[in-house]
Amino acid sequence: MIPTFRGIVAMLLIAPVIAAGAFIPGAGWLALAMSVVIVLLFVLDAVAAGDVNSFQVERIHDDRLSLAANNPIRLRVVSLRRRRTKLTLRDEPPEEFIIERRILEGTVLPRQPWEAVYHVRPIRRGDYTFGDITLRWVGPLGLLQRQATLDRSGPVKVYPNLLDVRRYDLMLRRNRLEELGLRSARIFGEGREFERLRDYTPDDEYRRINWKATARRHTPITTEYQTERSQIVMCLIDTGRMMQSPIKRIAKLDYVVNAVLLLSYVAAGMGDKVGAMTFADDVYQYIAPRQGKGQFYRMLEVLYAVDAQPVEPDYRRSLTYLALKQRRRALVVIFTDLSGGMTMDALVSHTARLARTSLPFVVTISDPE
Q: Looking at the domain that runs over 1-159, which CATH code has it been given?
């Protein structure tokens, strides 16, 4: 039990009476009587404060926290007491998290849920554990506080940033992708996927005329096609030593994984086939390109555990492996670090060969400082 400010003031009130006892007859008895009364009040306040069993406390958060994002953590309290109670809560999130605040205060009404929210920002992917919750509450007389520690430890996983994916999905459902800077573009011409029928114009090729539709409408009709949507997008992720370098306490590799997952989610939603490959001195994981949202979750589970290695990337080996596995033309997005001149020369040399059969696109992360 911890005295409150009011309790300390109550105890200090006895001091001048005790001091006066040396000069005023009977003041000592008054001090004794005051001491007994204050002790009784403290005892009554302690008894009336009850124990921790009069509170139901739980921690609420997503099963998967997002890396480098502010994840809300809710502490919910239900009081089984008959009166309102002032509470102070202290949570124990993993030490590796950046914490906004961990001490929360409020007043809980009888049998009404009360929630306090704080945010954590994980800086590394992986498995972590939340610790205990310490609860401190004030007695009805306000003279003391009782304190108890509740075992609310539990595991939590930190995944690549899923909040950006959810934001994109929400914007997509609301038809507000323009707010994210995205525009839908249809490319007509030499594709093979049927788009529409329209009236013939002098610039159209004769082979585009739809003779059946022309016969039905008694006027020349042209078939218009668009490029196929089921394209192949391969994301190559460099997991070499330079990808361990942090930017604002977050490793470059983690930024890359976040970007790859968002790209794969968007591409899968557009009907494209998405795959991924992680490499450094060798190829570590290869996820064959597939269609559908299920492919996004397969990639999420694989990339969740990806770690940087203390070796240099071998572009020749990795791109040779890709050429053997992926023979169809694809958009190949290579996420890497080009801090070293020799590394850049090797990448340029081998992507030039890749350009004969695919469309390579190199993405690198630079430190803004």
A: 2.60.40.10
